[in-house]
Amino acid sequence: MDEELNRIFAGYTGHKSEIIPILQDIQDAYGYLPEDALEEAARFTGVSRTHVYGVATFYAQFRFKPRGRKHIMVCTGTACHVSGAEQVLDALERHLGIEEGDVTDDMEYSLESVGCIGCCSLAPCAMVNDEVVSRIKPSRVGKIFPKKS
């Protein structure tokens, strides 16, 4: 990790005003914000670890857990909600053996719910990485999202 962080920090002066872009670069590099990287960012910018953590927790864009190779975002907006999004989310949690916000042990899938993905006519739907999966039925979750044996 040190080599990657050094590469990231090389593009900055270390001023505390650079905390957000530094955290964005760290997350781009690792897929999330590892705790030791937060500590190094605090050291580099000369602010407390608590301050860096406060900034990172304030913005919804930052993650503290890694994502799976296939990140599933189940839409829970109005159209998806009335079309059964909660049942889809429940089926996914049971099928994958994880709860919303978690990642499978093999790092294949991670799961979260989001307010709206803008595909209301395709409800209920989800995004898997950058691809929309539409009209999901809870009974089809296993076929749509196969687990490795």
TrEMBL record:
The keyword Cell membrane does not apply. CDD domains: TRX_Fd_NuoE. It is an enzyme of class 1 (oxidoreductase). GO terms for molecular function: 2 iron, 2 sulfur cluster binding; metal ion binding; oxidoreductase activity. Its EC number is 1.6.5.11. PANTHER family: BIFURCATING [FEFE] HYDROGENASE GAMMA SUBUNIT, NADH-QUINONE OXIDOREDUCTASE, E SUBUNIT. Belongs to the complex I 24 kDa subunit family. This is NADH-quinone oxidoreductase subunit NuoE. Pfam families: 2Fe-2S_thioredx. Its cofactor is [2Fe-2S] cluster. Keywords: 2Fe-2S, Iron, Iron-sulfur, Metal-binding, Oxidoreductase.
